[in-house]
Design a protein that fits this description.
With 281 residues, the chain is of the alpha/beta class. It has a single domain, classed as Rossmann fold (3-Layer(aba) Sandwich), CATH 3.40.50. It has an 8-stranded mixed β-sheet with strand order 3-2-1-4-5-6-7-8, sandwiched between helices. The radius of gyration is 18 Å and the shape is globular. It starts with a strand and ends in a 5-residue tail after the last helix.
Length: 281
């Protein structure tokens, strides 16, 4: 039976590279994008590159929870089962703090609440699969840049784009390990490596960081190399480690424990439940 995979943020970079690789392996790939015209062009590109016509496209603005809900409703209408969910979409924002239409700081919105909400809304379709997997694309920025304030999770004070991004990826990793004991679906997070994509290219990080970013970009990995661990976690018959683990180069890797406690993990999980409206309190 053909497996179905949904990849968010699949119109460029490692998302598109993973979509091509999985299409070549015979998956029915659903690519998510923000712009309908661009997403359709990429869908046709993937069909041409992979030779697999089973490529579908769906659009949503992941800064909008209403858009996310409507997207997941459409997926329920079109697909009886999802075998793999790859929460790849993410963003490094600029040095001026902005909030989404839902009033959530944008880094937190796209990197934390969006994958959290998508996962919860599609979990019933995943649970229909015999070998379902959820793959969350995190980053080693959770080790390098995270400095969370647990009384100010969205950094209304002390905002910095790298700090916000590091915090968001740390929270994504915590939500991954929290979900692992709440469902039989296997769930993993990973660091894809520093990849030469459009990610963060147009973010205004401030004069110094803008210069540094341009200098180091030529040394980054290709999108195909960055997608390697994603594709491995999606397809390997046996994945080393356990559900909830964090991976680098196909292997379980150490997560930062600097800020971790079970109580803080619960805090982030419950905060996301509240912000997404899944549970109110």
């Amino acid at each position: 039976m053909q497996k179905t995979v949904l990849i968010t943020g699949a119109t460029s970079g490692i998302g598109k590279a993973a979509a091509v690789a999985l299409s070549r392996q015979g998956f029915h790939v659903i690519i998510h994008g923000r712009d309908a015209a661009k997403t359709e062009v990429v869908r046709q590109d993937i069909i041409t590159e992979s030779g697999n016509t089973q490529v579908s496209a769906i659009t949503a603005d992941l800064f909008s929870m209403q858009d996310i809900r409507e997207m997941c409703t459409r997926i329920h209408e079109q697909f009886p089962r999802i075998d793999i969910l790859i929460n790849n979409a993410g963003s490094l924002m600029s040095n001026v703090r902005e909030v989404s239409a839902d009033g959530i700081e944008k880094t937190f919105a796209v990197n934390v609440t969006a994958p959290f909400l998508i996962t919860h809304l599609l979990l019933d379709l995943l649970e229909k699969s015999d070998d379902a997997r959820i793959i969350n694309v995190a980053s080693n920025s959770h080790q390098l840049n995270a400095q969370p304030d647990f009384n100010d999770l969205e950094l209304k004070n002390g905002y910095n784009p790298l700090r916000a991004y590091g915090n968001a990826k740390l929270f994504l990793i915590w939500n991954t390990q929290h979900l692992a004991w709440r469902t039989n679906v296997k769930v993993y997070s990973l660091h894809p490596g520093a990849v030469a994509t459009s990610f963060g290219k147009n973010s205004n990080l401030g004069p110094l960081l803008n210069i540094i970013s341009k200098m180091v970009r030529p040394f980054f990995l290709s999108p195909e190399s960055g997608a390697d661990t994603i594709v491995f976690l999606a397809t390997a018959s046996t994945v080393p480690g356990n559900s909830g683990d964090y991976y680098v180069n196909r292997k379980p890797a150490k997560k930062s424990v600097k800020y971790f406690s079970p109580e803080r993990e619960d805090l982030i999980w419950n905060y996301c439940l509240h912000q997404t409206g899944i549970i109110t309190y």
